[in-house]
Amino acid sequence: MSIPSGPLPSQGPSLAEAPAPLVHVAASQVPVSVRNLVRTFPGEPPQVANDQLSFDIHRGEIFGLLGPNGAGKTTLVMQLMGLMRPTSGHIQIEHVDVVRHPDAVKSLIGFLPQGELALNYLEVERALHYTGRLRGQSEHDARVQTRQIIEQLGLGSFRSRYINHLSGGMARLVGFGMALMGQPRLLILDEPTNELDPHKRRLVWDTLDQLNREQGLTCLLVTHNVLEAERVIHRLAVMDRGRIIALGTPQEIKQRAGGHVRLELQLKEGLRLEDRELEQLRSHGQVIEVRGGHYRTYLEPQQAASTSVELIQSLGLERVEDLRLAPPSLEEVYLDLDRNAAREVPTLPPPPRLEEASPSPHRLRHHLVALKYLWIAHMLEVRHTWAWNAVFSLFMPVAMVFGLSRIGLGLSDRTSLLYIVSGAAVFSVATEGILTCAQRVAMMRKDGRLIYYASLPIGQASFVASIILSRVFIVFPGVVTPLLAGWLLHGIRLELSPWLLVVIPLTALSFSGVGMMLGSLIRDLDLLVVITNALISVLLLAAPVFIPEEALPSPLRAMGFLLPPTYAADALRRALDGAVDVRFAVDLAVLAAMTLVSFVGLSRWMRWRVD
Ligand SMILES: Nc1ncnc2c1ncn2[C@@H]1O[C@H](COP(=O)(O)OP(=O)(O)OP(=O)(O)O)[C@@H](O)[C@H]1O
């Protein structure tokens, strides 16, 4: 079989038009090279998920990765994608040393992960288009390819449906389409046909086959569907307990596994083999009775013809409905592989040292584009709840200003009112920033979407910034309404100092940072919910942001000094009062320090790459 290599000439944009990668690479005939790869997970004893794996994937090849559950396939895929750090060994993809530069390969690979898709909350058409943009496509190319994929995969009637409202199989098909966006020359598909009906499975295999034949697409295909995948796979590795136990073309593996010929015998309805005949057949090997009157056995190739003739002669043609000889399917060989046999994979020479890929000059522009599309995606993700959020952030601060100003008789003076309006504003920001951001990041981590985001060629910074910016819109009314309520209900005069432009964003930034840091750090979702709600309750119950510290009992006053929102409320109150003094500078310094610490913690604990 001759498989074209390198980019193909194309007329107009097509499904597989070569992308402008974010790293410049020269074509090599071995786009994927893995040597002595080991990945262990801590435990007693440590779990060896990948054990000294070595293999190459050649250009224009569909390489299958088969193996039972827990064999280590997904662990391998995660390392190839730069999402998991190997314990030892080397991975080279398109000249990029993935172990040293895990982010550099992401623009080169179209990836379908095993878990959730990142853009699950968007409509099919938009998710495809945004994936193209995030993978570095121009607006025009992303639109053209989106249309083509919708047409090719028969997604026309689903184009406006939300992905998370689709059936599991349809969502998987859309995920396959998303992996094709950006016309990558290398695809990594982890179980692409899971949950698909036979028609859709055939569509996926046909599309892969077509892209491979026409455009020389290279693909690593993880699948349990051996029978169907055999149609498209050129070579494969069979994994078991972290090791490769067979490597080669389907034909080679079949031959290595004995090269037996399958004999299928179907007798006429109601007939069975007599004991004597069954014994005769058993003299060649084990006989399986598939159904009543339907027998299967495996023969040595040189015996196949003579045994069939003997069988027909002894049975008599009139009793035989059907008799067939066929090579065994890959699935049969796969099921029959001796998983305890010593590994039979040849040792491979080290890959040639290649010139390293260099970062593209378009990086900054790409980051800005990524920020824009991620931001819109996050805004759209919360579109169904933001109306309620907005009502809450309008209603709650007004209720606070109204209620607190009526406690006793002493809280309606200007100083107390300033405490109340600034306290209510900070409380709003803290609720959105700490509580919502923490839970949002934790949910993404739990359902696997964080891994998908990390597999796209986007920076962690653009991702975090897009979440914060999407919250700002929701936070903003909560900051403004208490000030308006104070002014309208009590007529308090507020100083609109330019410092407000520093205090409000810094408050939002620091609280969002703390929230996302907590969401990345605390692995137990229930514990996270308890901790974040407790933090907000302390803020509300201990009220160190609403009441002048002199009026608080000393334990609460001490607590106030420990709680960052106190500094935010103090800074806001001073800015609104025109009291920009040393204490104001201290407040800003504390907020800036908190922002810095939380973002350092966030970049450390957000699982962009599994160690
Ligand atoms: N984060 C982890 N911590 C500890 N052990 C892990 C972790 N991830 C995977 N493993 C272990 O590593 C082994 C390989 O898992 P992996 O998910 O790679 O298998 P797989 O071949 O992809 O399985 P499946 O076909 O079921 O998806 C398993 O024994 C699994 O329990």
UniProtKB/TrEMBL annotation:
<keyword id="KW-0067">ATP-binding</keyword>
<feature type="transmembrane region" description="Helical">
    <location>
        <begin position="450"/>
        <end position="476"/>
    </location>
</feature>
<keyword id="KW-0472">Membrane</keyword>
<keyword id="KW-0547">Nucleotide-binding</keyword>
<dbReference type="InterPro" id="IPR013525">
    <property type="entry name" value="ABC2_TM"/>
</dbReference>
<feature type="transmembrane region" description="Helical">
    <location>
        <begin position="525"/>
        <end position="547"/>
    </location>
</feature>
<keyword id="KW-0813">Transport</keyword>
<dbReference type="InterPro" id="IPR017871">
    <property type="entry name" value="ABC_transporter-like_CS"/>
</dbReference>
<protein>
    <submittedName>
        <fullName>ABC transporter, ATP-binding protein</fullName>
    </submittedName>
</protein>
<keyword id="KW-0812">Transmembrane</keyword>
<dbReference type="GO" id="GO:0005524">
    <property type="term" value="F:ATP binding"/>
</dbReference>
<feature type="domain" description="ABC transporter">
    <location>
        <begin position="32"/>
        <end position="266"/>
    </location>
</feature>
<dbReference type="InterPro" id="IPR027417">
    <property type="entry name" value="P-loop_NTPase"/>
</dbReference>
<dbReference type="GO" id="GO:0140359">
    <property type="term" value="F:ABC-type transporter activity"/>
</dbReference>
<dbReference type="InterPro" id="IPR050763">
    <property type="entry name" value="ABC_transporter_ATP-binding"/>
</dbReference>
<dbReference type="InterPro" id="IPR003439">
    <property type="entry name" value="ABC_transporter-like_ATP-bd"/>
</dbReference>
<feature type="transmembrane region" description="Helical">
    <location>
        <begin position="496"/>
        <end position="518"/>
    </location>
</feature>
<feature type="transmembrane region" description="Helical">
    <location>
        <begin position="386"/>
        <end position="405"/>
    </location>
</feature>
<feature type="transmembrane region" description="Helical">
    <location>
        <begin position="417"/>
        <end position="438"/>
    </location>
</feature>
<dbReference type="InterPro" id="IPR003593">
    <property type="entry name" value="AAA+_ATPase"/>
</dbReference>
<keyword id="KW-1133">Transmembrane helix</keyword>
<dbReference type="Pfam" id="PF00005">
    <property type="entry name" value="ABC_tran"/>
</dbReference>
<feature type="transmembrane region" description="Helical">
    <location>
        <begin position="582"/>
        <end position="602"/>
    </location>
</feature>
<dbReference type="GO" id="GO:0016020">
    <property type="term" value="C:membrane"/>
</dbReference>
<dbReference type="GO" id="GO:0016887">
    <property type="term" value="F:ATP hydrolysis activity"/>
</dbReference>
<dbReference type="Pfam" id="PF01061">
    <property type="entry name" value="ABC2_membrane"/>
</dbReference>
